[in-house]
């Protein structure tokens, strides 16, 4: 696939290794191309033996770190292969954890994970330029390996100076191709000290053929210049260290303190500015979620941005709109986010799901207070709506012509339902109106031909015109104790109520 057309969703290095496993997952890259989401896995073959395939378990999660269905698959390997062929993922996948279950040579399993836990390897010692023997080590390694870590031995294998794990049967590193025996001998401090002394003695005996010093003054000037250059180099090194380590560490600490004190904006700004320093990117995400949880009072928060979800737009007042033609996800189940671009979603705009013929299930945020006009108009396949805990208003014609909706329960928090809200819901049989509903508006259930039972938990005072017109199957209407049905103001053209049993709940 053309990488220029890819949009990377996440790209994470992996350092997990299971004891004696002849392969390792180095990196998981989740990307989007042509409207589909894929995973590319970078692997390393740690053994000198032959490996043909891996069996892996892929555990994707969405942007909220909520788990998606796991994928178990096989990955065919060539001897020199690193990146696997693209593996399809669910459209909502954002992050991935890949675990090797088994390694094969042909049809023969040469390693199986079973119930093993990842190896808890000790931290590898860094090689620092402050080591007096580092210069000699650099001379020894020039053009062969890059001296980064002290090579060491682990259970069943060894770690190269580049940090790569290799099994004991492999003589050369699978990443940098450095030779194990050469590194172990040349990285020895006694060997380096001996070679460095020899180098110093040779330097003393070797005349400088490039410059013919005429007198002691010239030599003194040269030594002075060397000292100046060394000081300059040290200053440059100090500056580099300051800007790459010390200053970022201070800024990281300030962002961490801001997060601990609940100053989420400062924490998000601070961690974001640090880029790839330590785990700053992950901490910025954590701070964003903590801010969202604090804003909404929710334990789990679904938040998105219009950069990642361009089909959304939101006003400063929290009115959410959607361009359905731009939406690339599945319509089978649609979850409305809690926040978009850091703004709490309080209202779904007019016609939000209008004419979404494939929409089946909708999960509304607990933050939503208002469902706009005609929000579910002509949603032919809609069978379930999970209301939030703070819904107050259902606008007119909200569910009109939802011909697959069979039952609905309006939460007690709802105080107002607009006229014609359930007009022509021809499959609707059972309705429960919450305690906040005291007025049944005009045309509310008009042409609900299969409507049999309506349970009113609140004390009804008014039934609007045509509220129950064309409801021939209506059998029972339940009202709470204390409700005097004879005192209810019933509008015109509600003849079907005349043969309906009014049941007063005790």
3D architecture notes:
The protein is of the alpha/beta class and 506 residues long. Among the domains are: 110 residues, Immunoglobulin-like; 72 residues, no CATH class; 75 residues, no CATH class. It has six helices and 31 strands. The protein has a six-stranded mixed β-sheet, with no helix packed on it. It has a five-stranded parallel β-sheet with strand order 23-25-27-29-31, with no helix packed on it. The radius of gyration is 35 Å and the shape is elongated.
In short:
With 506 residues, this protein is of the alpha/beta class. Among the domains are: 110 residues, Immunoglobulin-like; 72 residues, no CATH class; 75 residues, no CATH class.
Query: The biggest beta sheet, please?
Result: 6 strands, mixed
Average pLDDT across residues? 87
In the CATH scheme, the class of the domain at 3-112 would be: Mainly Beta
What's the end-to-end separation, in Å?
68 Å
Which strand order spans the largest sheet, edge to edge or round the barrel? Answer: 13-14-18-20-22-24
Q: Which fold name fills CATH's third level, the topology of the domain at 3-112? A: Immunoglobulin-like
The total of beta strands comes to 31
Helix content: 10-25%
Put simply, the count of helices is 6
């Amino acid at each position: 696939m053309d990488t220029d057309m890819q949009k990377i969703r996440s790209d994470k290095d992996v350092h997990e290794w299971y004891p004696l496993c002849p392969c390792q997952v180095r990196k998981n890259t989740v990307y989007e191309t042509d409207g589909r989401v894929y995973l590319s896995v970078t692997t390393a073959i740690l053994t000198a033996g032959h490996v043909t395939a891996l069996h892996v378990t892929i555990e994707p999660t969405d942007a909220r770190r909520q788990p998606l269905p796991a994928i178990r698959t096989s990955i065919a390997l060539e001897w020199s292969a690193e990146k696997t062929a693209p593996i399809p993922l669910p459209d909502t996948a954002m992050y991935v954890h890949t675990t090797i279950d088994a390694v094969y040579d042909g049809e023969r399993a040469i390693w199986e994970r079973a119930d093993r836990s990842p190896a808890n390897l000790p931290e590898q010692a860094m090689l620092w330029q402050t080591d007096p023997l580092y210069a000699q080590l650099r001379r020894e390694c020039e053009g062969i390996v890059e001296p980064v870590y002290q090579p060491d031995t682990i259970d069943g294998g060894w770690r190269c100076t580049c940090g790569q794990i290799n099994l004991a049967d492999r003589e050369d590193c699978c990443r940098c191709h450095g030779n194990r025996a050469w590194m172990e001998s040349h990285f020895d401090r006694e060997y380096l000290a001996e070679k460095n002394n020899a180098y110093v003695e040779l330097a003393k005996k070797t005349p400088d053929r490039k410059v013919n010093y005429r007198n002691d003054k010239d030599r003194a000037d040269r030594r002075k210049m060397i000292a100046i250059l060394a000081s300059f180099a040290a200053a440059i090194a100090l500056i580099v260290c300051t800007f790459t380590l010390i200053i970022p560490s201070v800024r990281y600490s300030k962002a961490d303190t801001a997060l601990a004190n609940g100053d989420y904006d400062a924490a998000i700004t601070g961690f974001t500015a640090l880029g790839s320093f330590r785990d700053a990117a992950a901490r910025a995400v954590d701070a964003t979620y903590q801010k969202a949880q604090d804003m909404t009072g929710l334990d789990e928060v679904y938040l998105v941005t219009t950069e990642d979800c361009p089909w959304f737009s939101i006003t400063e007042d929290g009115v959410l709109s959607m361009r359905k033609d731009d939406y690339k996800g599945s319509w089978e189940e649609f979850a409305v986010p809690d926040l978009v671009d850091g703004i709490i979603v309080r209202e779904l705009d007019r016609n939000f799901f209008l004419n979404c013929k494939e929409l089946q299930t909708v999960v509304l945020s607990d933050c939503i207070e208002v469902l706009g006009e005609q929000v579910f108009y002509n949603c032919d396949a809609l069978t379930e709506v999970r209301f939030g805990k703070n819904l107050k208003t259902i606008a007119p014609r909200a569910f009109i012509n939802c011909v697959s909706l069979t039952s609905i329960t309006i939460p007690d928090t709802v105080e107002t339902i607009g006229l014609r809200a359930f007009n022509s819901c021809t499959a609707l049989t059972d309705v429960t109106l919450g305690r906040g509903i005291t007025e049944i508006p005009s045309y509310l259930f008009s042409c609900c031909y299969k409507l049999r039972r309506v349970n009113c938990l609140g004390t009804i005072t008014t039934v609007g015109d045509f509220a129950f017109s064309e409801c021939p199957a209506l059998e029972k209407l339940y009202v709470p104790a204390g409700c005097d049905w004879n005192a209810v103001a019933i509008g015109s053209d509600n003849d079907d109520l005349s043969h309906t049993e009014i049941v007063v709940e005790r």
